[in-house]
């Protein structure tokens, strides 16, 4: 093996296959690097490591790195639940934030026509989207994440009167917006299995769905219904998240399980879908959400639970790209 072959093998391992085979001419090594989906920090770190390694190859005196960001199609990740109030919006906001922190270019859509809450969760209540070329331009939420909400299209209290086509059109306006270089839309779905859900799976074909449930049996039965809607439409299941799992007492720290334990994990097993993890019932999660400061944006005690789930989702997205 030549020194160049040896470096090429190390380069593939270092970049996870993102680099072209290195070429050397007159002492200058040229490499093309696909930086699509990497954060600025990751790009700079990778570029520095490549340069350092390249200059150790005998005869190489200079390195030229051409960075290309392949434009990938916008994929949709639907966050759904069988029933309302189980924390689907909380998970959507925190997942968008955690995926963004992993270097994925996310946009967030609040498709919950009956109770849009993302503007509050992502601290963008004072913004109004404008239209350009008949398409909406997203507003900016926490950490600069672009987002659009049903609340931007409909006056509070009027949405409940909407039926199939109107709701479907509104959803399309949110999805077919100017999402810039976003590669993933996290879509907070309305609870249940109604018109919006059908329009979503038929027209917008999500790349995958995450189902949220609380540990109670009844919620799990509803979750099973949501799973079957996506299954019937051929939308792959990313997995099931158990929210409000175990109550951490803010005074003594003791964790109790008012709704039982392990139900969601075993339901995921019964449905042959991955179990992505559990988020505890914690006052801090509710109060930070109400304040427009998603826990996943910080380093607090509950950020880790959201980040662990985001890592599994990111692995799934990578494996199915
Ligand atoms: N893990 C948690 N710990 C504490 N409070 C939580 C947790 N998850 C969600 N909540 C709170 O529960 C309430 C409902 O959560 P959320 O709005 O995310 O649910 P949802 O499933 O999106 O509801 P809806 O069906 O109304 O859209 C909110 O007040 C939220 O702050």
TrEMBL record:
Indicate whether Repressor appears among the record's keywords.
no
Transmembrane region(s): none
InterPro entries linked? Mrp/NBP35_ATP-bd (IPR019591), NUBPL-like (IPR044304), P-loop_NTPase (IPR027417), YlxH/NBP35 (IPR033756)
Q: Which keywords annotate this record?
A: ATP-binding, Hydrolase, Iron, Iron-sulfur, Metal-binding, Nucleotide-binding
Which SUPFAM superfamilies has this protein been placed in? P-loop containing nucleoside triphosphate hydrolases
Q: Which Gene3D superfamilies match?
A: P-loop containing nucleotide triphosphate hydrolases (3.40.50.300)
Is-annotated flag, keyword Cytoplasm? no
UniProt similarity note: Belongs to the Mrp/NBP35 ATP-binding proteins family.
Protein name from the UniProt record: Iron-sulfur cluster carrier protein
Specify the species. Answer: Sphingobium cyanobacteriorum
Source species taxonomy: Bacteria, Pseudomonadati, Pseudomonadota, Alphaproteobacteria, Sphingomonadales
């Amino acid at each position: 093996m030549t020194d160049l072959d040896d470096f090429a093998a190390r380069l593939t391992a270092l970049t996870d296959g993102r680099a072209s085979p290195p070429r050397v001419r007159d002492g200058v090594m040229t490499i093309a690097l696909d930086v699509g989906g990497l954060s600025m920090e990751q790009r700079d770190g990778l570029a520095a490591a490549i340069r350092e390694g390249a200059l150790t190859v005998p005869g190489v005196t200079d390195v030229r790195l051409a960075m290309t960001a392949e434009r990938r199609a916008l994929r949709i990740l639907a966050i759904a639940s069988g029933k309302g109030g189980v924390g689907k919006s909380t998970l959507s906001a925190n997942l968008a934030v955690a995926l963004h922190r992993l270097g994925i270019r996310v946009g967030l859509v609040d498709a919950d026509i009956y109770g849009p809450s993302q503007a509050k969760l992502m601290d963008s209540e004072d913004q109004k989207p404008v239209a350009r070329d008949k398409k909406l331009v997203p507003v900016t939420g926490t950490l600069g994440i672009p987002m659009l909400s049903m609340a931007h299209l409909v006056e509070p209290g009027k949405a409940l009167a909407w039926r199939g086509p109107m709701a479907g059109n509104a959803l399309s306006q949110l999805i077919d917006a100017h999402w810039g270089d976003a590669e993933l839309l996290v879509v907070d779905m309305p609870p249940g299995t109604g018109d919006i859900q059908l329009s979503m799976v038929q027209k917008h074909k999500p790349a995958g769905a995450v189902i949220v449930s609380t540990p109670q049996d009844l919620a799990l039965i509803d979750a099973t219904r949501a799973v079957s809607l996506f299954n019937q439409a051929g939308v792959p299941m990313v997995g099931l998240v158990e929210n409000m799992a175990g109550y951490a007492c803010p005074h003594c720290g003791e964790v109790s399980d008012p709704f039982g334990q392990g139900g969601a994990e075993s339901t995921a097993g019964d449905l042959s879908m991955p179990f992505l993890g559990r988020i505890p019932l914690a006052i801090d999660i509710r109060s930070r959400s109400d304040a427009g400061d998603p826990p996943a944006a910080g380093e607090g005690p509950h950020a880790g639970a959201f980040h662990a789930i985001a890592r599994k989702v990111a692995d799934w997205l990578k494996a199915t790209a």
